[in-house]
Amino acid sequence: MDHSIVTPWGGRTARYAESTGELHRAHDPFALMPIVFTHAIQYEAWVSARFDPRTFSISHKRTVISARVGERDCKATATFVLTRRNKSVHYVLVVKHEPPSAPLAALNRMATETGASVIVRRRDEVRADLDLFWRLEKLRQCAAMHLRMGAELDRPIMEELALGGKGVTDLCSALGGMDSQLLRARLANLHCAGRLVLDFSNSDLFATLAPGGGQ
Amino acid sequence: MSPAAASSRYDELRAAIPASLLTLETWPSVAESTLDADYLDRYKRLVKGADMFLKRQPMSQIVDIVKMSASQFLKLFQLALKPWPDGTEVVGTRAFVKFLVQKKRKRVSPRDPNSAPRGGYSGMFPRLLKGKPAVESDLIDFLNGKARPNSVKPKILHQKFLEICKTHDVAEEEYPFTTKSKGFRPLMKWFEQVYVPSYLLAHIGREHGKGAAVAAAYETGDGQSRTPPTPFLVWVIDEFTCDLETSVEIPSPRWDVEVVKLSRFPVLRCRSIGSVACNIAWHMCIREQASGADVIQLFRNAVLGQPEPPVVDPNMKMAPGAGFPTTIFAELRFAVPVNVYIDNALAHLLNDLQELLTRLYGGRVILGKPGTPKGRPDIESAIGHTVRALIHQLVGTSGTGPLDPTRKTAERPAEALVRIGHIEQVIHVQLANENVSESAGAGYLDSFTRLRHLVERKAIEPNYLPELKRKPHHFCAPKRKRILCDLRKGRLPHIDFLHRRYSSDWLKKQPFLRDREYWVLVDYHDLRTLVLCDDNMAAVAILTCEGEWGRVPHDLRILKIYGRRKADARFKTLPRDVPLFAVLAFLAQEAPKESSAALDYAYIMRYLKRHVPAAELAAIQAGQAAHIQWNDGVEDLAVNDAQVPVSATVNKVTGGVALPIIATTSVPKRRFNVPRNVQ
After folding, report:
1. For labelling alongside B333, which of B357, B509, B521, B669 has CA 20 to 30 A away?
2. Which residues contact A8 (CB under 8 A, 6 or more apart)?
3. Beta strand B246-251 with B257-262: parallel, antiparallel or unpaired?
4. Distance CA B344, CA B621 (A)
5. What does the pLDDT read at residue B620?
């Protein structure tokens, strides 16, 4: 289904289709897909994985993986599935403390069959740097608000970064005082497309071209 | 155990020690004075050995100290890390006291028939459950199933137990039938110690109701499921019913005005949570239940700025510095929330609202677990405070529920009730003043002082709503619509929306656009126009509603009121070509008899009043004539002597101080025409 303009969330029926408990909904502006998770830590882990420069694609909700093991069709559930730029596939399981043994074993079995690997993310790992999470979350928000806006700026941004890495403030002034919020949105898009790499350690987001010249 | 195996087990055990138990001081221990002298020396040696083990000393030295084999020591150490049967602690150094920690005994042998008549039954109940597991599973099925009475009394449980035993071929000469109590006490012990801890929520649900089970489930969490909030940018909304009978003044054909009662109505409220908990916006819904459009209006108020209600009582003023963040702090105007907590009301699940929050504001929507108001304590407690401090103190309050004694004592005639305009102003002032009152949520400062510090330090870095998206038509989800056209029947290109035609001069001249699909943006607050957009969401044209509705400002609520009431109105009046005004006249007639009609009437009049320019309104109130253009083209004066407000008339008669005339020279014409001879 095309979610580029509008997402049919489905009212009351769809609300309880995914979970009868808590539900977290957002919009992924990079893949133009709705995000649905049932726990806050799952969403937090998703955001940090989304902005990992190695991430090529990522699923947007709890993902069921099925494979044929021996004579049987088996299934296992991952919180989300991550594909890196080097084409390696990872099944990410986000847990509060320790992963429950049966789902983890099923996921491991599935990973062995499909040539993927399993990553377990615990709550204390996910919440280790809350400031970073909020920075990434605001960046995703910024990109979602400026959807279909400012694509013509990508070229001047890349040309400016070819001269050397810059923070948002410097980049704004170098590009003639453009709107910093729109610039952040474009930088987030280019980062997730693998054309440049952002350093999230401070709020000024130092940007450099990705290895390979951002092509 | 070979040295290699001991070494491997040493490493495994070391890795298994929880971080909280890495020093011996944190272990549960026993007072040495309570120990038997014969075992004291062994205890001390083992404690010393455990301490060395925790400090990563070599096993050979530990063995020398404890004077036992490595495997025996490791076995005792492993026992020390196991959970203590009662509570959540580990066994600790109690494992080093001889005979203190023993494996729970399980009876395996049948009762000796030669034992004393009243003895030899120890452990028979667990043995029965182990020998016939179907008895236990049937008991659990009964307790969790629908056949169970809500409150399980011991006698009922016992009878069921005996019945199950008979079903599973427990003979009359076997336990429990051979005892006088027939296993009553061990059964109750099993119920309390095995069943209830294992099926606690199911048990609470049956015993005390589903709501109690949901609340109990919420309490089982560790309080850390929610993402720790960032200042100001995490919002929560909720709705509360204004438990108050209010009144509204409507024009009466017999005398000046008539005061009629209004039924209760909900109020929506938006607050930020975290270290700067403050009121951000609110919206009064003059209807029985808040709709999705009302919630959208609340979020518009929260981002674009909370509008001031009409001043009814000039003495009712905000405290110095009070207000709402978006109006007080320029840095927070147009700031959008990152996370929004909402509940599962149908209005909150409206697609337009979900799209508004996730796409226009770009935030994350968190739909709470149904039936758990404790999940949003920030707003629930704030609402509780406002209701107690304000609503329940006013005349005509109906209290917290049907059993509240104030409901009976609050009966008042309509004239004695607080007017709706006063209520609107008082809620506005109260919520604004709360922002400059000290609160626990803001570290016992007032919220605005704390917020000001954060804003000055630039500690809040919000995203702002882009300027292009602040127009009212963007506060909705785009809808896919097809251009309809039938030239044979003379229907020029148009779009059907809510069973009405929308078109424009440009569109009417484009018949080749027939069947082409466009996106449509709608302003739920004023349905006179739609914005037509292409697939890139670029605006193509503004379409206007055709017919009478295109000239009268109206919203979805007014359309619904019209749809609901027009059938009644038709039998009382002759609507002809003035349907809305016929409905309005009908509502004015019905309002004294039916409070929901009064609510509808009050809503329409307040809505229309907002669309009259302030200068024109002030001039009318001041008794000055304003031009009205009737729909047959005749121009007239809006105000005549009969319509001059009472206070102004009195001033003329008594010669007192006249009301100030605000607009003196030119009074603007009304923007929408009104059918003639309709009051």
Report:
1. B521
2. A1, B351
3. antiparallel
4. 44
5. 58
In this model, does residue B656 exceed pLDDT 50?
A: no
In angstroms, what CA-CA distances link A109 with A76, A80, A82, A101, A206? Answer: 9, 16, 17, 12, 41
> What average pLDDT does the segment B137-149 reach?
89
Which residues are CB-contacts of B607 (< 8 A; sequence separation ≥ 6)? Answer: B553, B554, B555, B557, B558
pLDDT by residue (tens digit) across B585-611? 788 888 888 878 888 888 888 888 777
> CA distances (Å), B567 to each of B85, B557, B580, B590, in order?
72, 17, 12, 14
* Helices A40-50, A130-145: crossing angle, 10 deg rounding: 70
**pLDDT over threshold 60, residue B574:** no
Cβ contact, residue pair A20, B370, below 8 Å: yes
The tokens for A123 are 């709550």
Residue B22 — φ and ψ, nearest 5°?
A: -80, -10
Claim: this prediction has a pTM higher than 0.80: no
Strands B279-284, B246-251: parallel, antiparallel or unpaired by DSSP?
unpaired
Whole-angstrom Cα distance, residue A214 to residue A193? 9
For B439, phi then psi, to 5°, come to -150, 155
Region of B67 (left: φ > 0; alpha: ψ -120 to 50; beta: rest) is: left
Chain B positions touching A133 (Cβ under 8 A) are 227
Measure the CA–CA gap between B115 and B120, rounded to whole angstroms. 6
Contact B436, B445 (CB under 8 A): no
User: Is the confidence at residue B636, as pLDDT, over 80?
Assistant: no
Contacts of A140 in chain B (CB under 8 A): 362
CB atoms within 10 A of CB B77: 23
Higher pLDDT, B577 or B60: B60
Query: Do the Cβ atoms of A40 and B368 come within 8 Å?
Result: no
Residue B623 clears pLDDT 90, i.e. is over it: no
Nearest to A144 among B350, B362, B367 (CB): B362
CA of A5 vs chain B CAs: smallest distance (Å): 7
Split at pLDDT 50, 70, 90, the class of B627 is low
Tokens of B372: 């758990």
Q: Which residues pair with A117 in a beta bridge?
A: A90
Confidence of residue B486 (pLDDT cuts 50, 70, 90): very high
Give the amino acid at B373. P
Nearest to A26 among B227, B364, B466 (CB): B364
User: Could you give the CA distance from residue B420 to residue B312 in angstroms, rounded to a whole number?
Assistant: 10
Is the minimum CB–CB distance between A140 and chain B shorter than 8 Å?
yes
Chain B residues touching residue A27 (CB < 8 angstroms) = 358-359, 362
What distance separates the 2 farthest-apart alpha carbons in chain A? 64
Name the average pLDDT for chain A: 91
Least confidently predicted of A93-97, B287-291, B434-438, B583-587: B583-587
Does B210 lie at the interface with A, CB-CB under 8 angstroms? no
* Among B586, B577, B606, residue whose Cα is nearest residue B675: B577
Determine the residue type at B291.
S
The two tokens of residue A212 are 């390979």
DSSP for A63-123, please give it: EEEEEEETTEEEEEEESEEEEETTS-EEEEEEESSS--HHHHHHHHHHHHHHT-EEEEEEH
Sheet containing B500-503, strands listed edge to edge, beginning at the edge strand earlier in sequence: B479-482, B517-522, B529-533, B539-545, B500-503, B491-497, B484-486
Q: Cis before residue B575, ω within 30 degrees of 0?
A: no
Give the residue from chain A lying closest to B536, CA to CA.
A148
For B83-95, give one letter per residue: b (16+ CB within 10 A) or e: eeeeeeebbbbbb
Who wins on pLDDT, A170 or B582? A170
Confidence of residue B108 (pLDDT cuts 50, 70, 90): confident
